[in-house]
Amino acid sequence: MMFIGQMKEISVLLTKAGISSYYPIEQERDLSRAEIGEEAFAVQKGDYIRAHLIKIEKSDKVLIANYTKNGIEGYVGPNSLIELAFGYALGKPLYLLNEPGEQSCKPEILGMKPIILNGDLKNL
How many CA atoms lie within 13 A of 19 on its CB side? Predict the structure, then answer.
């Protein structure tokens, strides 16, 4: 999990604005496939996903902090796509911090009709 620091910063800004927020479990960034093996890695990833989806279920909105990654501006990774889809299925308003990048899942992302904040949290 590459952007946990930025997610924490966003959470602080939202708290100052009177908005409570959740972000993924920080320990996930320390999860090492090579150290614990493929099966244990998959089990742990599933646990992290379930825990975060429970947070989304409790939330009023879903904000994806999509930064540049792998040379793609506005990258939306697999976990973020899961989170968007879950929020979409629950009828939650969806937000992307930045315009989604040019990647194979862009039509699916845009099909869920997220509001693009263009880096400005004031529109949340």
Answer: 17
Q: What is the mean pLDDT of residues 85-92?
A: 98
Structure tokens at 4: 């946990």
Burial class (CB in 10 A: 0-12, 13-18, 19+), 102: exposed
The total domain count for the chain is 1
Domain that holds residue 114: 4-123
**pTM, to two decimals:** 0.90
Compute the radius of gyration of the chain from its Cα atoms.
14
Distance CA 85, CA 91 (A): 10
Contact 4, 19 (CB under 8 A): no
Task: Say how many C-beta atoms besides its own lie within 10 A of residue 27's C-beta.
Answer: 11
| Burial tier of 38 (Cβ tally within 10 Å: 0-12, 13-18, 19+) | exposed
pLDDT tens digit sequence for 17-73? 999 999 887 776 677 888 889 899 899 889 999 999 999 999 999 999 999 999 999
Most confident of 6-10, 25-29, 91-95: 91-95
